[in-house]
Fold this sequence. Notes:
Bound molecules: cytidine-5'-triphosphate
Shape: elongated
Strand content: 15-25%
Number of domains: 2
Amino acid sequence: xxxxxxxxxxxxxxxxxxxxxxxxxxxxxxxxxxxxxxxxxxxxxxxxxxxxxxxxxxxxxxxxxxxxxxxxxxxxxxxxxxxxxxxxxxxxxxxxxxxxxxxxxxxxxxxxxxxxxxxxxxxxxxxxxxxxxxxxxxxxxxxxxxxxxxxxxxxxxxxxxxxxxxxxxxxxxxxxxxxxxxxxxxxxxxxxxxxxxxxxxxxxxxxxxxxxxxxxxxxxxxxxxxxxxxxxxxxxxxxxxxxxxxxxxxxxxxxxxxxxxxxxxxxxxxxxxxxxxxxxxxxxxxxxxxxxxxxxxxxxxxxxxxxxxxxxxxxxxxxxxxxxxxxxxxxxxxxxxxxxxxxxxxxxxxxxxxxxxxxxxxxxxxxxxxxxxxxxxxxxxxxxxxxxxxxxxxxxxxxxxxxxxx
Length: 406
Ligand code: CTP
């Protein structure tokens, strides 16, 4: 794990309205604090039926506000003071009733009053709905949600799944880690907004027989970090992943493949519909010419079986060779074991790509951090050692700068 503090310096007002999902708000407050944010909790009366201010105070490290008549703020105006300091107000959980209050601009309780009194251009409002699926799909709620979005609120979720009432459907509040990641993404600069980004990641697996194969040590972490960073930067992201057990970054469309041929066949029809192609996958260069349909058994001779190998298609080079009108901006990766820069320069020209990102393979596979060299026609730039998501965000920025204007 990394100790990156993605919300360092951010001051978040976390509002709780009444709902069972208040139990998740406790964990969400912890996640925000762990990510470096300062958190000011504001609770409605209804929320206090589900969780106490004492719990929220302990987790946020600050006294909780529950009333507009609170005399603590200097000028006795909690509803003004609290939002002036905030980088965002996040209401999680937001009940159907609370969303109705927002839609109508009501101000009967401190939290609703605070949302109404916030400076809309400086203090964004993020709302994480939490309610029964029938309430979520009711025309009144649909209308209220559309209204608050039109008024500038950002929705976080809701998710789909089991509900506290025993039903299954849309309306459950996102999990604390999902809310945290959505909030982190919200604050990232939208340098790839409107762009479509295709990423390959992970190793490939080339079958020898039904139980064995050839693969490599790529963990997929760099590619998944790039997919996440591109999505955070506002892109629509498709991730073609070899066999890895990493979770899909939020908002990313994932296509799982096993072999280099499958990866090639997934990528080629998609590539012309994307603005950027980032090939981070450690594609196996060769595969057994014919995989055995049955498990290969020892034959008692003491001799190992001999395999004929055949070369896999070079996916990156194939995309880079597409006609200009169909060709995304191509970014290659090079994992080298020696002469990193010389090999990277040669590889960039050989693959015909404008940007090649080089790293030291054995020093990065499976690790959470890395150093990168960016090699393009203008020269070389180094990105110093950092965790892979930090590098991926910087790379998303470097790619955005190199793209032709839409
Ligand atoms: N790549 C690809 N398809 C392949 C092989 C590689 O798309 N069949 C892409 C990788 O995703 C990476 C870049 O090409 O972006 C370079 O991969 P690398 O394995 O370093 O290069 P190779 O072409 O395999 O060269 P070599 O093994 O000789 O270093």
